[in-house]
Amino acid sequence: MSGRRSLPIYIVCPVCGRVTSTDSGYCRHCRAPLFPFSFLETPAEAYEYDIPVGRDREGREVGFKLGDLSKHLGIFGLTGFGKTNLVKVLVEGLAEKGVGVLVFDWEGEYRDFAGIYGFRVVDVMRGIGLNVFSPAWDVDLDEYSIWLAELLASLYAELYGENLSPPMRFVLGRSLRENLERRGDFGSLLELFKKYSMELPSRSVTYSALYTRFEFLASEFMNKIFSGELIDFSENLIFDLSRVSRVSISVARFLVILLLRIIFDKASIRRGENPSKVVIIEEAEEVVGREARSANVLRFLLRARKRGLGLVIVAHSPSLVDESLLKSISNLVVFRLGDFDDSRRAASMLGLSFENSRILMSLRRGEAFVRTFSSPSPFLVRVRKYEPVGEGEELVLARRMVDSVVRFPFLSVRARRALLGLSSRQYRRVEEILVSRNILRPVYVVVGRGRPVKLYGLKGERGESVAHRYAIYYIKEKCREVFGEDIFEENNVVDLYSRRLGVCIEVETGTHVFPEKYGRIRDMCRYILVVPVTRSAVNMLRKHVLGGKDIRLVYLYEVPGLLEDIIKKNHNFNKNP
Length: 577
Description:
Blueprint: E1 10-12, E2 19-21, E3 51-55, E4 61-64, H1 66-69, E5 73-76, H2 83-96, E6 100-105, E7 119-123, H3 141-160, H4 166-182, H5 186-197, H6 204-214, H7 220-226, E8 236-240, H8 242-247, H9 249-266, E9 277-281, H10 285-288, E10 309-315, H11 323-327, E11 331-334, H12 340-350, E12 367-371, E13 379-383, H13 393-407, H14 413-420, H15 424-436, E14 440-445, E15 453-458, H16 466-483, E16 496-498, E17 503-508, H17 517-521, E18 527-532, H18 535-543, E19 551-553, H19 559-568
Parallel strand pairs: 5-10, 5-11, 6-8, 6-9, 7-8, 9-10, 17-18, 18-19
Antiparallel strand pairs: 1-2, 3-4, 3-13, 11-12, 12-13, 14-15, 16-17
Helix pairs in contact: 3-4, 3-9, 4-5, 4-6, 5-6, 13-15, 16-19
């Protein structure tokens, strides 16, 4: 019969296990899609990455390019579906690539990075060493005082549910400007409220209103937070806000905004495509939320990319984040969302159609849709699980070993083992974990006799290598023992220079050897010592004819004795080994 309706087909939902019809393409119970996402093909650009984050539907590894992260990243999803795990994977990858990382941690979830990759955890409750009115960074005081007035006004509105009156704004602005010139503190700011309130007809009313509302900033609680050791913002830092946020979300937000402003002001104008530092804001809705009164004072974040700063915004939903900041995000990761309106908003940002927006409400734990600045279309990713370095006792030992490498980079293996109090077996196990995770990298320094000295380089470390630094340290210490004084002086052309002896010393690690540079050095001194400290440097320098009786290739251990011979005028300098 032509008018008969076809019966619906029923199957068991692979997600919730309940029976459902297939007419809509989604489970009627859990809204999970019943068929593969065949319309989503992983773009080729996803396979060209610097930081791997997981695998696509075909099991191939995908990730982010460093250059993409300078255009900012938004990570959204319900609690427990993988946001923090992804951030930890990113933090690990960025640290390994030598990119600076700062994390604002509201729940103390990133403490396991302490001592790893050179991270320092700053417990904000114990002090951040910051005087708001005595900035230790370059800043225009007029612009800064206006910004600070806006920040305090937003804090006032948030705490008391009303805006500052025009007289209160006048007094606050004048007081802040003078306090900055004085390099005072919050206690002196309260005193200036009285001075400038006397210029107004309302006098005592304005003074009382400002004093009573901002008195807490000069309290013992806030003094403790602003005291402490000065923070070095060039380090990898995790700001632990967990204890402060339990006391007051508003105070925690106030501190985050202050720290963000310092990070922004200290950052230099961007060079190149890759970010020099990535700032990760967990619980971003608390700081840059759509309803937050502090949104206006965070407009400077829109210019973060030009300062070489990449932002990672982590929130439960894109609808909770300030609209202007959301529009500046060029990379997106969306885990499972629980609201249909949120799903539609996220789908439009990803480039998914309205019909496919329901997929975002049915993703499994650890699954996410990703769209990067480089990729023309979104793709599905199974984010890899972050694995901390070791467990239990191994984790403690691994942290201690990394800390010892940072503090005492030139210790021998025997001395390091003794310092850590480890047996040979324990030491090998901890070293194996750290090397396999690319946290430490063994470096062998050729001294010239005996076995090479085994040192460690931190993965992603910038600047001169540990082998180069060790050679400089070794020569200076040995010469100090022989001569009883430091015979070298500062010089920007060569590694070590002694005007007294007429000697230049160049340490070569084999990474960049340019024989022609020695022609320029000849004008500075009578003798040039070239010291190879790695096998590759020894092999490379032997291939080159350094030429001239004034230049000699020597091993590290020979340098002090050769310098002593030069002083005694009893040397055979032109004999190469």
